[in-house]
Design goal:
single chain; alpha/beta; D-Maltodextrin-Binding Protein, domain 2; 2 domains; five-stranded mixed sheet; 10 helices; 13 strands
């Protein structure tokens, strides 16, 4: 994919997911771009000066495939891990990545055991009290999936009226469905695995949950190629968050600028797109 085409897709994604996507009058969201927005192509930040910074010590966890995980030989891999390495390559500095238990990552950052955390930690009011975050390098929109060959559903209030839609009980996806698709009949399940199993068994007409999780399942042999995405992404931040960024200490302004600059470069050069498609061949946008 050429850079011009790639940047055009990113600009389209920015307009799609920067605000609330209305579905009651306009119908389903517009066709989604190939990869999610992580950088506004209109912005051209200056290259940061990294005086005294010879390497970035990244912290992550090793139990969240395909985002961060340990291979059989103990080496770290995953989308988050490769994004970290690509940032260091772009900045021309060294890079170390250490795995720690997920619930200890922020404490390790504060006590100086690392310089940045790249572990799918969402930017929320609670985490913003603990650290500052780079621009988001991915967001996980909500998506509908359905069985292949099933009658296509028009993803509007009218189109989903009377349809049974599986959701994870108590989730933001259930709340969103009830608010914006009141004619649908939500059927709650205890977790995403149960939801996916129910859809494959034709217990429900559609499932509505996290697009990234669905993408991983649809790409895996356990799905038996039963299902597919329907419609486009739903990115309302009040329900589905502001996205995932790289966390650094609040006083490390120079490193934050460097990370943001490198992420923008990875987007404009197409590196980000290559990494995204490597780990998410069935794209969740």
């Amino acid at each position: 994919m050429g850079n011009a085409r790639y940047l055009a897709l990113f600009f389209t994604a920015l307009s799609l997911c920067s605000g609330f996507l209305s579905t009651d009058a306009l119908g389903a969201p517009a066709a989604a771009p190939t990869t999610p927005i992580v950088s506004d192509p209109a912005l051209r930040p200056d290259r940061p000066t990294l005086s005294g910074v010879r390497a970035i010590r990244f912290l992550t966890s090793d139990d969240y495939p395909p985002l961060n995980f340990a291979r059989e030989d103990g080496t770290l891999a995953g989308f988050n891990v490769e994004i970290a390495r690509a940032i260091c390559d772009e900045l021309g500095i060294g890079c170390t990545i250490q795995a720690r238990r997920w619930d200890t990552l922020m404490d390790a950052l504060h006590t100086g055991k690392g310089d940045a955390v790249v572990a799918s930690i969402a930017a929320t009011p609670i985490t913003r009290d603990q650290a500052v975050f780079s621009q988001p390098y991915y967001q996980t929109p909500a998506r509908f999936i359905a069985r292949k060959g099933s009658t296509p559903s028009v993803l509007t209030q009218k189109g989903l009226a009377g349809k049974t839609v599986g959701v994870v009980g108590g989730s933001s996806h259930e709340a969103y469905l009830k608010t914006f698709f009141p004619g649908a009949t939500p059927k709650p399940y205890p977790n995403v695995f149960a939801l996916e199993t129910a859809l494959a068994a034709a217990e429900i007409d559609l499932a509505f949950a996290d697009g990234l999780t669905f993408s991983v399942w649809l790409s895996d042999k356990t799905s038996k190629d039963c299902c597919e995405f329907r419609g486009g992404p739903y990115c309302e931040s009040r329900y589905f968050g502001e996205g995932v960024g790289i966390a650094v200490r609040k006083d490390d302004v120079e490193l934050l600028r460097a990370v943001n600059w490198a992420l923008s470069r990875l987007v404009s050069k197409g590196v980000y797109s290559e990494l995204y498609l490597k780990y998410f061949p069935i794209v969740f946008y």
